[in-house]
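Feature request, filed as a ticket because there's no other form

It would be nice if the structure record came with a short human-readable summary line next to the tokens. Right now we just get the raw output. Example of a typical job, pasted below so the devs can see what we mean:
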Amino acid sequence: MIGSLKAVGYWRPSEETLRREWGRGYGGRPRALREIAARRGRQPNPLPDPAWLVWAGWNPTELPGVLAYLRAGQEWIRFHGWSYCRFACGIAPSALGDCDLTDGVWVWPEGLAHYVEAHSVRLPDEFIEHMRAQGWRAPAEPIARWIDRAASDRPQIDMTSWVEWSFRMAITGADGV
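Raw output as currently delivered:
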């Protein structure tokens, strides 16, 4: 049984998406969005902007392994809609996928490899070290998807270290200095 999964690679919505949602409302319901915002005190989204994490420090000998690992994760949960690139680079939303992947320890959006490969987005050293320790190979044994688990066996997703690390990188710079 998995107790919790460490999250990595989740982004705040783009400013354009936020403006559109505020204009038409959440799910087309302006009142519902206003009510949600009022309950939250209109606090800013705690997720990072991927632009904070762009860096030139990728090791060219490890990058192919990182990308292969990210693409080889197992489906954890599927959503009813495609993601989109927060850099608005023109990649088709379908290329970023509609699910989250996992290796049983970490969970990440299907399109995370795009951010690393196309935009040089940095990932936490802890996650890189985990992938390295696995020989750059995601586990082959099946991991039960979220939907296939009993409600009592669905692990929590821990965003804490991802959000804290991202904000630290935003302050110090993605190079960590």
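Something like this underneath would help us a lot:
The radius of gyration is 17 Å.
The first helix runs from residue 15 to 24.
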